[in-house]
Amino acid sequence: MKTGYLTVIFALACAACTPRFYPPKVDVPDDYLYGEGFPRDTAALASDWWRLFGDTVLDNLVQRALENNRDVAVAASRVEEARQNLGVVRAQFLPQVGIGVTAEGEYTPQTKIVQTYAVEPSLSWEIALFGQLRNAKRAARAQIASSEWALRGVRLSLAAEVATTYFTLLEYERDLAIARRSCTLRRESAALIDSMFRYGMSDGVALEQARSLVYTAEADIPQYERAVKQTRLSLDILLGETPQAADSTGSGLRLLVDRHPADIPVGLPSELLKRRPDIMEARYDMLQAAAEAGVARGARFPSIALTAKGGIASNSIKGLTAANPWAWDALGSLTQPLFAFGKLRRSELAAMERYTQAAKTYEQTVLTAFADVEKALVAIATYRGQAERYCELVVSNDRIATMTQALYRSGLSDYLDVIDAQRSLYQSQMGLVNLVAQQYINYVNLCKALGGGW
């Protein structure tokens, strides 16, 4: 009976050394505010979500980045480091075996040189009775899980960044193509005005206005060439490759209005807590902090150390293998910290504060995740309507530019009307390209906000 009571008391004491883990309560909405029209099927988004865009060039870029990017390699190394750390933690609480070999020589006038050889094996074992080992293992396992989710997060962020940079590159290439086309048309128009001026069919003001349009178009081209080259260099870095010289021949024609992926299944907000990498990473960081607080608390309780030593000594190496009797001793000790100027208590309090910080970080990560999804949904819905209106605007401005040019040639309109029409067409074309590219990026942001594939 006494043994049973001792067991119960010991178990209660061990339990008292481990802080209870209470996950913070986060208000999770039943549905997304702006998710109307998006499917709730959670099994439809594959892990290679970028293939939804149907662009083989993008598929290849993301694959190369995932294979070569240094940030992914660093995150993978941290996972392996965490796994090795678990082995270190386990070994700290196992018996430690060592051996000592000594050779000693002593000289006196009476005995001359006396040599002594000794072999002394030893064994030591520190027994953690108050949850240190259990909590240390929990902390190490939580660190492994956290690093694994961090790796997923790095891969997700990298794929999203590659896709965003790629669509930005297509936008700049398309802008450059439009600027070059506009410059060509304006040069042709200026040449026509110059010819009309020579024959007295136009005045000098119209000619200078036409030349001004050419200069404006020529001034726009370098900024888009610069943007294209700098964006390609950024893409090379993401791919983990040495930056290479980039030309400016891309036309950005892969950036099409009707190439957006079908509506992405957003699922329910409650499901986001289990599939978004940064949320899961924060959760396991919280678990690790709770376990480390248990280790800090256990350090305030007694510890038991068992040591055993043996040995044999001889005046010759050969004598070490003889049947000389071995000497040995064993010792068990119980150590209870009494007074350390509050160090152990403050260490425990500091560990508890780290847990509080991790819990608040988790809460903030969840709130940010919900906001990311909502903002992406709002952006997709609003940009869709805006792009549709801009498509109509470009068509309308193109007609106006054609008609004003015809009216001017017929002498029924001033060249200033032609300038205004061409400027409006140019600006609407650039605006449409920006909207289309941003809509692609909005879909990328939604996939990233949802945690990628699952």
From TrEMBL:
Pfam families: OEP (PF02321). It is a lipid-anchor. It is found in: Cell membrane. One of its GO terms (cellular component) is plasma membrane. PANTHER family: BLR4455 PROTEIN, OUTER MEMBRANE CATION EFFLUX PROTEIN. Keywords: Lipoprotein, Membrane, Palmitate, Transmembrane, Transmembrane beta strand. NCBIfam families: outer_NodT. Belongs to the outer membrane factor (OMF) (TC 1.B.17) family. Gene3D superfamilies: Outer membrane efflux proteins (OEP) (2.20.200.10). Coiled coil: none annotated. This is Transporter. One of its GO terms (molecular function) is efflux transmembrane transporter activity.
